[in-house]
């Protein structure tokens, strides 16, 4: 079921060798024909090269005299920006307001993005480990909270409740003839911050930056979308700067009619685009997933992406705890948070146990808590999505664990192997809870603090290694630094971030030309990620690879997803490469094909038609 670490490492080495060979046969960048001249080019971030325009281009594009006389190369521009950024960092050292520091860094990168996209994406790709937390979580949460005040330049499209009946024509206002990837949100549940209305547009923008950096999706073929159906956030409705609709959220059939119209408009113009749903509140996350999953090439990252990454981490924890993978169904897991992400993880883990041959009716390895405590079958108004995971009665139940039992009480009595948080409640894994985890039935208790942004994380790695012990395993949704344990030992702060998985899902679906994204395709991506880490790394407590290798990881995940689409007869091909040709590729050839299709930022020669 899971590819061996040795085979994975061998494939990775061969992939690098193959990529090196491809680099040796490098072809010069294609010429771009533009319908612009002069300042119109300088004001277009896609074509603008700043001072890197050679003199011949300056002459033919009407740029002579509009730029400083010295021509600088790409590498000099890159170094200039990095040096400027380091100066900003140095100047802000000692600044007590961490929010101000984070937003200052985001603004610096955003200015580059607005001026020169090619240089921006090169900076992001080469420094992804450092800059991903700025363009996405945790800083993107701050950006969304302050978006109306930070707004300078529009990115993406805004479809609102007032646009009903107009979306089929509105979709043609977007200038790109082809769109490959769309990320859409309704702003109703942004990270762990709640309803941010139109300000949630920062999420699709940040996600698509990661698609470009990690999956090599051409930035000219991505579209961030906000569906503004109103907001129930009274603070925003009273904010004079708020840029969204000032009305309560649509509900019921009125709400679904807006989403339906948007999805049909997308299909009409870009029938092969992949659509990722992001940060919808729980009831609409599940409703829209079930409504569209078999009719469109779409997926919900909160339900399916988070679940895949969490499952990879849970399986890694089994290995780190010295147990075989087939023992996963016996792993006792306490889950705090019963929203869309939490239920998605539970469903994914349940399917994994079934795949491992567990067919026992009533088998339940989970203890799920929400704001009202432990969820049991006696709870009134039990949500159907969580009902199958509610505790009941019988020989497998722990005595005296009643409906609504507190987290500390559950941890003390269950002695779980894993404590997994998707609650959005910062610090809920407090000292008392973590000390109770120290009495786990596993010699290496695992604590996953998955909520974003950092302020909403259930605990920190310092807390875990201090109170649970040096043998603990830690993973989180937002980035933390590793912890020095003394005597040369390191407590690894694994980042269980969706960016390990969703770019590969989208890329594999796109290159296969999949009609829809199946459970099998998602499982193939998660299995590929889970098998990426070697046994030696697992023994150290490392569950996920470094973010710096994200493009290599994405290529392999994308290839696994593509091959699954072929196997399930869902692939229709892409860019002239049909399903028959894709099906004849070996595993290595598929990875190499995916790698070659990934966009990389270089300056292209420009010729004006004017």
From TrEMBL:
Q: What is this protein called?
A: Malic enzyme
Q: Where does (S)-malate bind?
A: 189, 452, 497
| GO MF assignments | identical protein binding; malate dehydrogenase (decarboxylating) (NAD+) activity; metal ion binding
Record note on cofactor: Divalent metal cations. Prefers magnesium or manganese.
Q: Species name for this entry?
A: Urochloa decumbens
- Family, as annotated: Belongs to the malic enzymes family.
- Name the SMART domains on file: malic, Malic_M
Question: Needs which cofactor?
Answer: Mn(2+); Mg(2+)
- A Pfam family this chain is assigned to: malic
GO biological process: one example:
malate metabolic process
**Domain of life of the organism encoding this protein:** Eukaryota
Subcellular location(s): the record lists: Mitochondrion
